[in-house]
Write a structure and sequence with these properties.
This protein is an alpha+beta fold. It contains one helix and three strands.
């Protein structure tokens, strides 16, 4: 299945999009981790999914590509 989304206007919109995709794909509850400019140790979104904690780092790779990587 291919999903299409409008191009985010800023970093906050991009993180919101990734958070919603994580909720959809992993079925958990996710929130932003910290605030812009705060030390976050590479974590942008943090939550609970499938009986364990999950942390997501958002990276802008190209104008049209985003990857949701599970570790």
């Amino acid at each position: 299945m291919i999903l299409s989304f409008p191009h985010p206007k800023n970093l906050q919109d991009f993180e919101t999009l990734i958070k919603e995709i994580a909720r959809f794909k992993l079925g958990g509850d996710f929130e932003n981790y910290g605030r812009l400019g705060q030390k976050q140790d590479g974590i942008d979104i943090f939550g609970w999914a499938r009986d364990r904690y999950a942390a997501i780092q958002c990276k802008h790779l190209t104008n049209e590509t985003a990857i949701l990587k599970r570790s």
